Amino acid sequence: MAKEKKGVRLDHISKIYKDPKTGKDFYAVKDANLEIEPGSFVTLLGPSGCGKTTTLRMIAGFESPDEGEIYLGNEPINALTPNKRDTAMVFQSYALLPHYNIFDNVAYGLKLRKMDKNVIKKKVTDILSLVGLEGMENRMTNQLSGGQQQRVALARALVIEPGVLLFDEPLSNLDAKLRVSMRTEIRRIQQEAGITAIYVTHDQSEAMAISDKVIIMNKGNVEQISTPQEAYYYPNNKFVADFIGEANFLKGKVKAQDVVEINGADVKCATGSMQAGAECNVVLRPEGASLSDKGSIKGKVMYSCFMGAYQDYHVLIGDTLVKIQEYNPKNSKIYKVGDEAYLNFEDNTLYAL
Ligand code: ADP
Ligand code: MG
Question: Which end of the chain has the least Cβ crowding within 10 Å, N or C?
């Protein structure tokens, strides 16, 4: 549907703002280098205030970078106003025209471009069927549910066939259940339209569910660019490990390649390029360990709770409280508060930072 899928490249992009409280300049985005493949779905992910919206608005042209250059395809676009860029944005607030019907809301951008009436009719009809609103042309937008309004906003952005579609937390105003179904819809529509999408969210499960790649940001810095799987299994640092999913950090010491000593016991753990003798943090996901009567790392159960899908434990190892989720606990021994138990790890679960 899109004329041409376009890639986006940020080359040493920075944005400096003045902090209204201190009056001092700070980097809202610092030296961001990213490359977004044509046709891919990429998410800017990070806590509130980390610079996601600022990055997106620089790509859209609503803000201009203080350093660096942005490319759309091969074209440098810093000097172009938003309407001269081949991008369209879907906002959290929808920003629909309230006294217009669905057809006129979606057709608006095409009429501005002075397109032929029949062409407009065909394009709007096609797009409405893509977003699941076929036959609803005459409904007024102020009579629609939040989810339907979001679909209209999406149709309005798609109908002008931009090279890149930008989303800023588009599902924040919807209830939890609708958020989950709409994100699957957005992914389907992006794939069917074959368009490049850049999506901002602070919700890590939303990012994991829809993205080919995640760009994880913290305090204006890009911390990791990778697939969701890589970010989960091989986080670049503690921030990423903690932000994507839940993580325990066990204090360890590298003994040899892929062997780490934790609390007096040697265990298998990916050590990458770390040298023997180095102190490290071992990342353990809650589902990466189980409890048994035998093993090398001994602990004491401080909390034990049945959650249905899993048994939730807190186990004290040395002076570190470790969270364990043992899935499908029906056929395994359940440990009680005060019990001693040993941690057992599946192969390839431990990763040293
Ligand atoms: P996010 O979208 O990740 O929540 P933003 O990109 O909106 O973060 O903001 C990044 C930082 O820049 C925050 O500290 C925010 O308060 C600040 N900021 C955003 N816009 C402005 C502005 N126009 N002037 C000054 N500071 C701003
Ligand atoms: Mg934001």
Answer: N
